[in-house]
Amino acid sequence: NAGVTQTPKFQVLKTGQSMTLQCAQDMNHEYMSWYRQDPGMGLRLIHYSVGAGITDQGEVPNGYNVSRSTTEDFPLRLLSAAPSQTSVYFCASRILQRTPYNEQFFGPGTRLTVL
Amino acid sequence: AQRVTQPEKLLSVFKGAPVELKCNYSYSGSPELFWYVQYSRQRLQLLLRHISRESIKGFTADLNKGETSFHLKKPFAQEEDSAMYYCALLDNAGNMLTFGGGTRLMVKP
Questions:
Q1: Among B33, B12, B10, which residue's Cα sits nearest to residue B101?
Q2: What are the chain B neighbours of A102 within 8 Å (beta carbons)?
Q3: Contact yes or no for B95/B82 (Cβ under 8 A)
Q4: How far apart are CA A49 and CA B23, in angstroms?
């Protein structure tokens, strides 16, 4: 199993450009999520999904859109990139049920720079 | 709203010294707490869960509901423990995994 995969690994954008960060998982996990990682701020939840066709906002959703058309894929869209969106983005997945044994599996990350 | 605080951004110790990475949380419900670790050039991975009361790589963490803390401890640090450590809290609905700001542990030879 590949686990959680993300593309691209690196991306440089100009202010105002749009792009989509791709995320896929092959573990048949219902729950998928996107985080951004910034120094001193840890990981902050952007959006999450509890299954195909269902998405919801996390802690910092502004400027980002998501959709979930299949169980495997959960792309993150930046419609008009801003320098404040310069960050490392992580996709994650896990089983849906809340148990104390939950383990969230993370992708390798996408490093995005917005000039 | 749930909140996780890791007061130390950087913790530097010598090999063989004891280590304690602090984590405090605020949450009105019944928390599920975790420690995640990110080694250099590797992806974030689960280190341990509070429910398991296990020791992983020599690390343990005890949930103290009275002090709302979940500190990570290891009696004798090793150089390979150098990494970024994140404390995380899962809400009652199981939808939001909230992370602290992280502590970078540096173990010097």
A1: B10
A2: 32, 34, 49, 90, 94
A3: no
A4: 27
- CB of B39 less than 8 A from some CB of A: no
Digit-coded pLDDT (tens) for A84-112: 999 999 999 998 877 767 789 999 999 99
Contact pairs from chain A to chain B, CB under 8 Å: 63
- Across the interface, whether the CB atoms of A48 and B94 are under 8 A apart is answered no
CA atoms of B49 and B60, how far apart (whole Å): 9
In one-letter notation, the amino acid at residue B68 is T
Interface list for B 50-109 with A (CB within 8 A): 50-52, 86, 90, 92-102
Is the pLDDT at B51 greater than 90, yes or no? no
